[in-house]
C-alpha cells in the first residue's frame, strides 16, 4: 500500500504542476485576446472616456489631454507591451470612466459578488443533491421534477427574478427588494441564480445515481439489509459525484453571468453590475480586468477540480501511474 | 443666532438677468396639499432613480440628466433661478457686467462655511473655475459652459473679477445649474483628485457614503444657513436628517419598490404606471419640465439625402409626432411645438403649419426632391438608389427604442427606409461624430436659449481635435449669425428678438424633429411633503422636503 502510494504521488504532483502552468497560459491568452478584441473594435476611446452622458462637449485641450494620459497616441504594439508590463506588476491600469485603479474598483466590488456567488453556489448544490437523491429511480417524482427542471432551464433568469421579487418582496413583504446589506438581501438574488443553475446539475447527478443504483454492488449492499437512504447516501452518491465535480467548473462561469442579472435586478453592488456598465461604455481597462478575473476564477476552480478528482475516485490514481 | 440674523438680512438676492421667461407647460408641484400641516424635522428620505449613476462625484466632471439632482444637496451654486426665470444670489450676492460684456465682477456672500470648515472667498471661486477648466477634471459639460472664461483676479476677500474672451450672455445662467456646484476651496487646493470619491461642498446635506451600483447616502449639514430665498420655505438647516439616493435600473422594480414602501419617492416613474400612482390613495404624482431643447430626432444635414431640405421636410411631415409621444409616454408627455422648451427664456411658440403631420404633404416634398420612383419593396428610389436613412442607436432606454421603431414604420408609409443598428456607446458616438449616420436622438437641458448655439452653430461641429455638440452638422450662415449675436448681446430685449428670429429660421431649415420635453415624472408617498424643483435644470431639490409622523 505505502509503496503504491509513493509511486502515484510524484506523477500526481507533476500533473498538478503542468495544470498550474497551463493556467498561467490561459490567463496570458485571455489578456491578449481581450486586449486585441477591445482595441480592434471601432470607436474612439476618447468617447469611451466621456462615457454616455446626455450632454458632452470636449475642447481640443481636453481631447489631447485624454489621448496623452492613456497613451492612445502610441502604436498598438507599444500599448500592448505596456499593458503586459503593467499586468506582470499586478497593475490593471486605470478605468476610463471612474479614473480609479481597476484593481481598487474590482477589489471594492468583489466582496458582495463573492458573497452572492457563494450563497448561490451553496443553494445550487443543496437543490441538486436534494432533488436528485429524492427523484432518482422514482418514476413519479422523476417525471414531475423533469418538467420543472426543463421549465427553469428555459425560463430567463430575469423573469424568474421578477417573479420572486413580486411574490416575496412586493406582495408578501418578507424580503427586501433592493440593496446588499445583511443576509436577507442575499436570499432572492441567490435563489434567482440557483434555480437556473441547478437543473443541469440535478440531471447529471440523477443519471449518475441511477447508473450506480443498477450496479451489482448496490444489490449486494441491499441484500446486507441496508436501508434505501443509506444505499443512496453512502454508496451511490459517491460514484455519482465525479461528473458533478466536472460540471462544477462550468457552474462557476454561470454564476458570474447570473450575478450580472441578479445584481442589476436587485440593485446590488458587485462586479456583475460593474461589468454591465463597463461593457456598454467600452471602458477597456475595466473590462479587461474583469475578463482576467473571470479567467482566473475558471483556472482556479478547474485546477481545484483536477486536484480533487483522484481523491474522490481512486481509479484515477492508478490510471495516472499506468 | 448671529447666523440667523445674517440670513434675514440678505434682501431678496439681486436679480441680475431679467430674462422674460414664460413658465407655461410645467406643472406646479403639489405642495399646497401640505399647507395646513406643520413641517417637522427628522427622517431619512429614500429616493430611487434609474441606472444613470455618476462615474465620479465631482459635479463639474459629469454630464448626465440625474447629476444636478444628485449634486444639488451637497453643492450650492453661485446663483439660484427663480420661478419667473430670474437669477437670485446664492453663493454670490450679485454680479456686475461691464458694458462690453467681457468683465464680470462677482460679489460673494459673506459667512459661508463648507462641510470641511473651509471659508468661502474669492480665491475659492477662482479655484473652482480653474478646476472645471483643468483638462484633468474631464469636465464633459461644465468645461464647455465655461469655455469663454479667460482669467480672473481677486479684488478682495469677497470680490472676484472674471474676464471672458468673448461676450457670453448665458454665463450667469449656467452658473445656476447643478453641474457648476461649488466645491470646497480647501479640497481643491489640497487634493482635487479626492472630489471624485469624497465630495465636499457647502450645500444643505453632506456626503456620507457611496456604494457603487447601489446608492449614495447624505446627512444634514447643521450649519447650513444660506438657502435661496425665493425657493426655500424656511431658513437654517434642512428638515430631513438625511437622504439616500438609490439607483434602480429596472422600471418595474423601481415602481414596485415605491409601492411596497422600500423607497419614499421615485423619479423616472415608468409612464405606464403614472395613472395608477394618480389613482392610488397613498401616493402622489407630479411632473416638471426641464428647460432647454426638447428631446428630438437630429437630422444629419451633412449626409445625403438629408442635405436636401425637401427631404428633411418630407421626413418631418411624415411623422405623426402626437401618436409617437402618446404611445411611448402613455399620454404623460406633451408634444414639443418648437426648438425650445416653453420654460426656457426667449421661447416662442411655433406656428409653422408645415410642422403638422400630413402624409400627402410629406409625399409632395419627397416627390419634389426627385425621389419619385419606387422599388419592389415600395421604397422611394432616385438614380437607382433607395431613399434609406441609417440610425445607429444605443438601445438602452425603452422609450427611445419605441420612438425609433415607430418612426421607422411611419416613414415606411411614405417610402423612406430606416435602418436601425444597436451599438455600444463609443461606437455610436464615433459614428455620430464622423457624420456617418442620418438620424440620432437626444435632448439638451439648460436654462438659456444659448442651447440653440450649442446644438446648431457651425463652430460646434465635431472635428478631429475636439468633440462638438452640433449633431445635425447644421452650418447655416443666417442662423449662425443670429445665435452668435444672441450669445454676445447683453440687452435682454434685443436678445429675445434675435432668438425669436433664430427659431423662425430653424423652422425653415428643419435640422431636427422636436418630439417632447421629457419632464421629470415624480411619484411619492403622501407622508412626504413639500417636493420642490431647482428650475435651472428642472431637477428635484430636497431642502424644503419633510416627512410627517406617518412615514
The domain tally of chain B reads: 2
CATH superfamily of the largest domain in chain A: MetI-like
Shape of chain A: flat
CATH homology superfamily of the largest domain in chain B:
Periplasmic binding protein-like II
> Average pLDDT across residues of chain A?
84
Q: Give start-end ranges of low-pLDDT stretches of chain B.
A: 1-34
The appropriate CATH architecture of the largest domain in chain A is Orthogonal Bundle
Under the CATH scheme, which class of the largest domain in chain A?
Answer: Mainly Alpha
Q: If strands are numbered along the chain, what order do they take across the biggest sheet of chain B?
A: 8-9-10-1-11-21-12
Counted by DSSP, the helix tally of chain A is: 13
Tell me the strand percentage band of chain B: 15-25%
Tell me which CATH architecture of the largest domain in chain B applies here. 3-Layer(aba) Sandwich
Low-confidence sequence ranges of chain A:
none
Assembly state here? Answer: heterodimer
Largest interface: A-B, 59 and 58 residues
Helix content of chain A: over 70%
N- and C-termini, Cα separation of chain A: 16 Å
Quick one: how many beta strands of chain B? 25
Structural class of chain A, please?
mainly alpha
